[in-house]
Description:
mainly alpha, 19 helices, globular
Amino acid sequence: MLVFIARRLFVSIWVFLASSVxxxxxxxQVRDPLAEARALPDSARENAIAEITERMNLDDxxxxxxxxxxxxxxTGDLGTNRQGQSVNSMLETAFSATLQLIIGATVLxxxxxxxxxxxxxxxxxxxxxxxxTFVAFICFSLPLFWVGTLLKQxxxxxxxxxxxxxxxxxxxxxxxxxxxxxxxxxxxxxxxRTRLVAFASSTAxxxxxxxxxxxTEWFADPGLGPVVVAITAVAGAIGFTTLVSxxxxxxxxxAALVAAAIGIVAYFALDPVLDDPQLATIxxxxxxxAAVCFGIGWYxxxxxxxxxxxxxxxxxxxxxxxVIFTDRMLQSFADYSESVGGRPVSTVGSExxxxxxxxxxxxxxxxxxxxxxTLALVLISLATYTRYTxxxxxxxxxxxxVRTGRAxxxxxxxxxxxxxxxxxxxxxxxxxxxDIGTIVGGAVVTEQVFGWSAMGSLLFTGIEQGDPxxxxxxxxxxxxxxxxxxxxxxxxxxxxxxxxxxx
Length: 503
């Protein structure tokens, strides 16, 4: 493995250098950087041309300019742009904005897309599978700029107007309840009667829930409360235990329930700490939660079930912490909405100018600006992960070793999670690595639609001004990300499938 990594690093470095030569040469030819200076009046033209020429070293040959850039880049200095601004500071600002934009969108696309793909494969040719296929192809074919415009209209402008009087109409309530019932009825395993019961009960439950939320105007001043947090924590414990080990083994379930109980106690005990915390406090609490849950799983799992109890307990603890985090943020929604004029969902930019609030209000401000561009990216990327996962799962499910596992008496959960899903993720790993590597370079269309100044804008500005320095800064980040994540994908192959050996 180490020999393989060293060899790939050596080859990647040379590929990266060759690519940088090509990109630098093309970036110097994209546009005349002196075009605007030549349009100035005679009194200012010569000084402007001389200043830009000296700053960009336009009198030197292209090869000399490239070697000068490469030498500075190896020391961490990416030079200055045409206006004399430091490219390093521009890159830092653009890259941080890109990370905010892509982390949530990428994680949601991967998790939700793979989950839907797995369910669709397990329900092949059912109504659920056909519906998922239809919706996936629609989302994949939609232009991103059009999706962004629709989201700005319906989920920002209209939604902000609706929050002034958050009353749910009977027609909308019935539609959401019906869709919920259809989804639950199609997911449940069983005969027709079982599915009809699941459809009717979930439809009625959603209708009652929406009616209560509308009557209490919950959307104007939301919050979960201790009862919902407790129910969600217990449900999370049961769900993660089912996913990791199944409910037939008691120690993992017991450990997960203990973690959920500790999380419920922490909901009350940490109230003063969570009043207006710092980001470091939240990170520290998350790490402490993982450590405590690891210890609980280690102790209660025993020698036989420790391997299953630890992940179930840690996932339950972190999930409960995330629910508590969400509850505290929702409790600040009314104050934040009032401070921004009743428009909590923003359509432009990455933050409200000169806004100062508590930790939770600042988090809501970031979320309000991230919601629409993140959702736009998720809708477009979701279809790809869903279809690839479904196809890969169906191919693996027909393999002989899967039939052998069922013949040996393994539970369906064990067959799906240990054999089908693990081997089905191998081609998805390549897709994930490629997507992450490319999206780090920015989402140019999304940034333009939603007014974000990030990596895509940095590249666009460099091309528009004929300035190679911003373009090369973009290349260093995006090209480096592609090289690194493709190597990570190769290494992940050996972990997902022990039959694959990298040497």
